[in-house]
Amino acid sequence: xxxxxxxxxxxxxxxxxxxxxxxxxxxxxxxxxxxxxxxxxxxxxxxxxxxxxxxxxxxxxxxxxxxxxxxxxxxxxxxxxxxxxxxxxxxxxxxxxxxxxxxxxxxxxxxxxxxxxxxxxxxxxxxxxxxxxxxxxxxxxxxxxxxxxxxxxxxxxxxxxxxxxxxxxxxxxxxxxxxxxxxxxxxxxxxxxxxxxxxxxxxxxxxxxxxxxxxxxxxxxxxxxxxxxxxxxxxxxxxxxxxxxxxxxxxxxxxxxxxxxxx
Length: 263
Description:
By secondary structure, the chain is of the alpha+beta class. Helix content is about 30%, strand content about 20%. The strands form 3 sheets. A 5-stranded antiparallel sheet has the order 4-5-8-6-7.
């Protein structure tokens, strides 16, 4: 590690001000940023910790029934607080990484990083969530813009994430055992006006919606509706853990399992 300044603001306004400094970077749970710094792949002059901002923590139900989660809320806290309100989201949070990761990592940090194999992006996209920052609100469909790329501007902080709660939902993850990231993960959410299906871990472009499956499941919410459907292998990740063809196959398998688990 190298020498850097460390700031721990107690309010969103103070954090935004601190991030205006030269080479300043926000620090959520640090599960991605700190290892990156140790490898000298990132070298911010100032770390601005968001861990002391109480207004960015917690889970509550909004007047419209949506589940609002503070950007600084840990995975473990989401798993506990959302269990009765959005079980599929709680289950997803409860199986991220290991206990150390779940008690340090935050939902805001995960969504801001937008790792192509992270779990939360699939939940946000399948739920049609709204990502709330210190400056604006961004629909999930507009937020995710490719591998490690989002609509966030420099110095913009995720303060809250609003999840419309579906009639039924489930997340199925084919685990990469070493990293505990998703080799392929599929989140299926059924709403009164249709079904949304989001896939993580598979595409070179990061999380995406499988619109063909959405149309089929909106007409017939059954695994049988997916028979004959598949995502193209072109553009899928191919590495030592699995070929692009293997990942494309897993997308179909995991989607059927998620639909079946919805009951």
